[in-house]
Amino acid sequence: MAPAVNLTPKTRGRLTASLPEDRLAELRSLLDTRRKGFSLEAPFYTDPAVFTADMEGIFGNHWVFAASVAEVPEPGDYVTVDYGPYSLIVLRNDDGGINVLHNVCRHRGARVLTEDSGTTGNLVCQYHSWTYNAEGTLIHASAPGEADFAKGCYNLKRAHSREVAGLIFVCLADEPPEDFDEVAKIFEPYLGPHELAKTKVAYQQNIVEEGNWKLVMENNRECYHCDGHPELACSLFPTWGLTDGIIPNHLEDVWQRNLNAQDALEERCRRYGLPYEVVEELDTRIAGIRISRESLDGAGESFSATGRRLSKKLLGDLRDFRLGRCSMHLQPNSWFHFLSDHVITFSAFPINEHQTLVRTTWLVADDAVEGVDYDLDELTHTWKQTNLQDKNFVELCQRGAASPAYESGPYMKSEYQVEAFISWYVARMQEHMA
């Protein structure tokens, strides 16, 4: 376990300007009096002022997963990423690198690109045709009588970006958290063999959940509710998150089957030189992480009804389909499943205090042919259904948090990762508001 990190990323503080002092005092009090081991007080899920604070203290300060390299494979390819008040353009430049630009024209603030994704040469604002190159430099803003216009003062604003093991992260802070370098070194060896640069997007699903972003993340961080995921339970052991001593009687056989499958998986990982150990530093780092390689039920290959592979093409330099799943959680907004035959990325983008966009992307080998090597409906079935079920669970919690009868409830032992997420969130917000 890594030691606690005494590091607070720096941004231009806007919270004190946007919220009156009495509301700031309320927020500080809610954070300082948070009861460990219990869910948050209702305002954390329902109050627009708390959402404003979250967007500055969390999403304005920390590294956020935005997309995979498969979504922007060629120069000029872009995706737009929106969360809270922010809109970003994630663009592959001519040198093969990534530029992240604020999607706000420097003329009168119009959105420059309005599609979720696409390919572009220059970036042209459709309002008055101000034109920027891939670096965000203003190259055209001509108008009668404006010969002395200083174009160099009005380039698009930029954000920080990192591309690690095929994943693209963005950060809006003036000085991003430095410990992300250490976290990248942790997960690169796990993800590298899957070679995301040699994958393509098979499908992407966007769901708007009527729930606060923290409820979305809390729901993801536990499997206490996994009885509500019948499709997923065919391949994901429902004992995930449980330990000896807290196994219910009806899951004892499943628990033993899980242990046997994990032993066999670890033997294969040692044979192929793949890391599999659990690294769990969810609330002891600024960039909290949990990663491991874990067995799947049935054939142990993929998220199917039988656990068998869903694509005939192995990813990267992997040599065996029966490698379970490499599962990774990153604070604050993402989780991932890396399998031998495909990868699934998940990202949560807050819209407002009661809505969150959940984006799920399925990646397959770039030479896999739909209808020949994989069936798209079969590939996406388990997690499409699971996402809809999770949407329902999150929305049940959001409606409950809005009730006057709501009060914080205790987390169970198997929900320790939910507690770790909330502990991380509270610590980061306290640092920001200090």
TrEMBL record:
One of its GO terms (molecular function) is dioxygenase activity. It holds the Pfam family Rieske. It comes from the Bacteria. InterPro entries: Rieske_2Fe-2S, Rieske_2Fe-2S_sf, Ring_hydroxy_dOase_asu_C_dom, Rng_hydr_dOase-A. Keywords: 2Fe-2S, Dioxygenase, Iron, Iron-sulfur, Metal-binding, Oxidoreductase. Its cofactor is Fe cation. Residues 63-170 form the Rieske domain. This is Aromatic ring-hydroxylating dioxygenase subunit alpha.
